[in-house]
Write a structure and sequence with these properties.
The chain is about 50% helix and about 15% strand. By secondary structure, the chain is of the alpha/beta class. It has 2 domains: about 40 residues; about 230 residues, Rossmann fold (3-Layer(aba) Sandwich), CATH 3.40.50. The site of S-adenosylmethionine has 25 residues, from helix 7 and strand 2.
Length: about 290
Amino acid sequence: MKFLKAIFLFFVPYGLVKLYANYKESKKPDLRLQDQHKAERDANQLEETVLENDRKTISVDYNAITHFFMETFNIEESHVLGGSIPQENCDRIIQAIVKNYSTNRITGLNIGNFLGVAFTYILSNMVQNNNQSTFVSVDPNIPHRGISDLETKFISCLHEYNLQDNSLIINGYSLRKNTSNDGVIFDNYDPKEAFDLEKGCTGVLDKLTQLGKNNFQFVILDGNHHSEYLQQELERCTSLLAPNGILFLDDIDKNWKLLKKSAFHFLKANNHAFEELYYDGRILALRRK
Ligand SMILES: C[S@@+](CC[C@H](N)C(=O)[O-])C[C@H]1O[C@@H](n2cnc3c(N)ncnc32)[C@H](O)[C@@H]1O
């Protein structure tokens, strides 16, 4: 039979043989396509369950957020609280935002995130007001207060409270690279010795400005605490803030005398562009005119 087939093929024109072979090939089931269909079906099923879970309600309890970090990652309370804007100052920030924007959809920018306690608390309140609101965080994810890999912990917290859809995380330095812990040795971690090992994207505020001016309804500045650095951040934030937008500066107190001096100097030199909204002894809030 094989022999007869070989003789038959010998006399049939090559074009016809090729045509037949192509026809037979096209009738074979396409395994790669079947695999793709299955992969898409399985993925869709899994993704649907995530969407279902996302409909959980959002907790707005500051203590619950701090306990989340203490219990999930075994971080000492003194570190979680000591490195975060306290609840009463966050409440005042939220009040000012709500008063200024009512239930409008807003976009905020947070420079200096640490674990994201203040970010999570403020965002959960923003979302309750308008669930389309967005909060953008900028942090280089370098060790702070002896705690490393902050970003993984922060993302876990956002998932815990279903805030991942309202958050945008930018891993980088607001301006140029700076030392961690504001240059202070913490738990035997020396920022000067570790400087070369700490890596991250730089110039985030300039890039955000290139993407568009006046995009943010409010900005919280709580990153590098060196006074000259803050001056430069303030200049960049002026064009990022929308008219009537609010700038919140943290740690404007006696523990950070140079920072305080720098903040009030900026206000004096820029009173044509900003007015003081409030000063609670720690947060200085400025409104863009
Ligand atoms: C005081 S903590 C922020 C606490 C946070 N605002 C809260 O209340 O939950 C300062 C954070 O700023 C980060 N940081 C330092 N330099 C920065 C820079 N140039 N740009 C952005 N973040 C910076 C530090 O690594 C640290 O995570």
